[in-house]
Amino acid sequence: MTVSLFDEGAFAPCPAPFNLAAHVLAAGALTPDKIALSVVKPTGAQRWSYGKLIAAVRGTATGLLEAGLKPGDVLLMRLGNTVDFPIAYLGAIAAGVVPVPSSSQLTEREVAGIIDQLNPAAILRADGVPCPETAVPVYGSEVYEGWHALPPAAYDMGDPERLAYIVYTSGTSGTPRAVGHAHRAIWARQMMVEGWYGLRSDDRLLHAGAFNWTYTLGTGLMDPWTAGATALIPAAGTDPAQLALLMKRNDVTIFAAAPGVYRQVLKYPVPPMPKLRHGLAAGEKLSEGIRAAWRAASGTEIYEAYGMSECSTFISNAPGRPSQPGTLGRPQVGRRVAILSDGQPVPLGEPGVIAIDRRDPGLMLGYIGAPEATAGKFAGDWFVTGDMAAMDASGQLTYMGRDDDMMNAGGYRVSPLEVEAALTGLPGISELAVTDVEIKPDVRIVVAFCVSADDLDEAALKAAASDRLAAYKCPKAWVRVDTLPRNPNGKLIRKALRDHAI
């Protein structure tokens, strides 16, 4: 019997000694006058050459070391949607310090939890970004922007398996998990260049996300810089109606965004973009409707990728490797992927859980401070994702949804248990449960279902939620119900909540 297992050979091992930041900036160091980054807006652009970018990164590394941080120390980044974000991120890694990128939308309460868990040696904080009072040293923009001009630090070279950075994701337990990645993670992303991007050094890749989103950080910045290409990011506050025009004016060759951004762009006329070769999509499932509408409007294809915080993207389609309609694509060459049931690959065509080999060089080191949670994600040789799919004989995967209750909020995966725990004790609410609901094609929102003796004061509930949760995690609608649906054992039937929203 042929089973659902894709394996077309191992990827080349990461060299040693190694430093993630040195790898990202090596190509740019050969072309210091080339534009590495352009922050674009309708009235112009802010441009950074590779020479200027590298000087700022290595100067930041010097500043961190002179501030007393040591290789292996943790640096919490509370920065906004500006170029300071990737400079600080790479500067920390260059020095061997471990950065923790975090969304500027997180509340003080959420940030306090990160501080308690990770005990950072320092915090970089931009004006207006929430951060609780803390004994940890906090450096503002007047300090970290001054570091850009300091003499360059040497790259901290070492074992590619050592911890490089930490990102947060929400797990099914409801507790946000700190995902630790090794320096080698950037080396593994080379499998995405041919397997998804079709990226070249002469490309001009515009990513529609904010600097401080991990999807933007990887696909929009780190990968183009690794290739010596030019990255373009829309200025903060850019109207989606302007994105297509910005692509045309700035000779964009590749456009990357979450599927919801494509939907927003398609609400407006799309001008001819003769330089655009194709688009990239990730963060949530791309609908065939959006794909077809983009093709009709732009004359180009969207290539989709599937991944997660623990392993970035590893299933995709690409120029020269198109997917069959309705499928995600195939595992990238160099990946070993299986569809499992009870820890074993299932026959071709049968549904199961997507899993990737635990030896994959892009896979996380583990959840920081949570060895049991880490162990729980593995079944023998496999890291189990929690997403369902079926694989055909050519390796194409048809996505079938989550095998748990994780929600998708604008491209961010959010645990309903995390939201419910944060909203415990709201006045007048005896029980509460949340799930995401599709309100129109390709648009999903988080909805709270509340058992209450009285009518809901939605404005007061939204205000209370905003004090406890980042905006993207907050329910956008509140529905009063008599009871929550449960099975005979008393377990919440979360999928049945959606019946109350119809």
Structure notes:
- The protein is α/β, with parallel strands linked by helices and 502 residues long.
- It has a domain at 407-501: GMP Synthetase, Chain A, domain 3, CATH 3.30.300.30.
- It is built from 14 helices and 28 strands.
- A hairpin with a 2-residue loop joins strand 21 and strand 22 (382-391).
Short description:
The model has no long low-confidence stretch (mean pLDDT 93). The strands form six sheets. Strands 3-2-11-10-12-13-14-15-16 form a nine-stranded mixed beta sheet, sandwiched between helices. Strands 1, 17, 18, 19, 21, 22 and 23 form a seven-stranded antiparallel beta sheet that branches. Strands 5-4-6-7 form a four-stranded parallel beta sheet. It has a domain of 95 residues: ANL, C-terminal domain (GMP Synthetase, Chain A, domain 3, 2-Layer Sandwich), CATH 3.30.300.30.
Which helices and strands occur, and which strands form pairs?
Blueprint: E1 5-7, H1 20-29, E2 35-41, E3 44-49, H2 50-66, E4 74-78, H3 84-94, E5 98-101, H4 108-118, E6 122-125, E7 138-139, H5 141-144, E8 163-170, E9 176-182, H6 184-188, H7 190-197, E10 204-207, H8 214-226, E11 230-234, H9 243-249, E12 254-257, H10 259-265, E13 278-281, H11 288-298, E14 301-308, E15 312-316, E16 330-331, E17 336-341, E18 344-345, E19 352-357, E20 366-367, H12 371-375, E21 378-379, E22 382-391, E23 397-402, E24 407-409, E25 412-414, H13 416-422, E26 431-440, E27 443-451, H14 458-466, E28 477-481
Parallel strand pairs: 2-11, 4-5, 4-6, 6-7, 10-11, 10-12, 12-13, 13-14, 27-28
Antiparallel strand pairs: 1-17, 2-3, 8-9, 9-20, 14-15, 15-16, 17-18, 17-19, 19-22, 21-22, 22-23, 24-25, 26-27
Helix pairs in contact: 1-8, 2-3
